[in-house]
Amino acid sequence: MSRVNLAIIGGGLVGASLALALQAGAKARGWKIVLIEPFAPGDSFQPSYDARSSALSYGTRQIYQQLGVWSQIAQRGEPILQIQVSDRGRFGATRLAAHDEGVPALGYVVENAWLGQCLWQALDTEVVSWRCPAEVTSLQPIEHGYRLRLDDDTSLDCDLAVLADGGRSGLREQLGIHVRRRPYAQSALIANITPGEQHAGQAFERFTEQGPMALLPLPENRCALVWTRQGMDAQRLAEIDERQFLRELQDAFGYRLGALRQVGARHLYPLALVEAQEQVRPHLVVLGNAAHSLHPIAGQGFNLSLRDVQALAEALLGGPAQPGDLATLQAYQQRQRLDQTLTVGFSDQVTRLFGSRQPLLANARNLGLLGLDLLPPAKRWFARQAMGLGTRPARGGL
């Protein structure tokens, strides 16, 4: 029976980021970390027109700079230089610009496969090992830790188990950790688009009566589309032919980027706000989408999870010699409570406000967008939320 200090269940972007954030301090302490992941990471990055992407906030760039991987990530990161927010059929609109906020970019759009490759290559194999492909089938509390049983009939003991296995975590359910689920009665249609004109680093948030949409800049003048529609209508859009799909998208989005020329593979994801009712127990942490899964339209989910990662790593490395102490984990949760509450609330309220068809709310959001341009403090607050800096003190012009 082998034992490690930390077992991170889920070697995706959140789990790998935590291993990277811990590894220097873990090496100094003699800790051993294992990443347990059912899907083997690729040996090399393979560009794809249809690659899924994440919007990384400016605050996320700062974290990855501290971890020493940003320069590599940025090689295939498309800067967001301007965000245009508009309400279809109404005058309300606002624009956020990087130069107005004193930053090189408001955020960056990065293909998930490239981001993962950068993280995995930066891991120190003397500290971080892989069990892959492997899956944890059960977690059993033991004295001073947990016993993990894997699908290859082996077991592993750890001082601290971190659940980073996604929003549909079966282990979370197995442990009796309840979730609060608020369905949006919507699905997100995800696809990559080629516009007729250069996107020039522009991102668009567009709100329509049928649901919000986002179009984000990607390398090779592609754009990542997130189009939120109600269930049956989303399914219809996923199944119609490419020409009809582009026609309907053009009608909803307009000609801000000229005629839309190409759409890649379309994927549907049912949407709900999901929050775990417990994020820490003795020797256990729930992290990433397993802890909170947000609506994608505001682009806050992964960025919040990375701030959780940073706070957890700092708490563990500042805590006892062996990780898993409940007081240390509770201090981490207390530190992140405000950030999580504000970010989840911001994402949820924006989604509900701009997804409503009620005339009074529609008029209110229209006035709100107009007001952002007329009230610089309000616009600055909104920009800081978008950049992932909303719960951090302003420093150095930020």
Q: What does the model show?
A:
By secondary structure, the chain is an alpha+beta fold. The protein has a domain at 2-48 and 113-180 and 273-350: FAD/NAD(P)-binding domain (3-Layer(bba) Sandwich), CATH 3.50.50. The chain contains 12 helices and 20 strands. Strands 5, 6, 12, 13, 14, 15, 16, 17 and 20 form a 9-stranded mixed beta sheet that branches. Strands 1, 2, 8, 9, 10, 11, 18 and 19 form an 8-stranded mixed beta sheet that branches. A hairpin with a 5-residue loop joins strand 5 and strand 6 (93-97). Helix 9 runs antiparallel to helix 10 (326-355). The termini are far apart.
And the CATH topology of the domain at 2-48 and 113-180 and 273-350?
FAD/NAD(P)-binding domain
Which structural class fits the helix and strand makeup?
alpha+beta
What is the CATH architecture descriptor of the domain at 2-48 and 113-180 and 273-350? Answer: 3-Layer(bba) Sandwich
Global mean pLDDT: 87
- The CATH class assignment of the domain at 2-48 and 113-180 and 273-350 is Alpha Beta
Strand content: 25-35%
Whole-angstrom Rg: 21 Å
From the spread of the alpha carbons, the general shape counts as globular
Tally of separate helices: 12
CATH superfamily of the domain at 2-48 and 113-180 and 273-350: FAD/NAD(P)-binding domain
GO biological process, one term: ubiquinone biosynthetic process
InterPro entries: FAD-bd, FAD/NAD-bd_sf, UbiH, UbiH/COQ6, UbiH/COQ6_monooxygenase
Pathway: Cofactor biosynthesis; ubiquinone biosynthesis
Family: Belongs to the UbiH/COQ6 family.
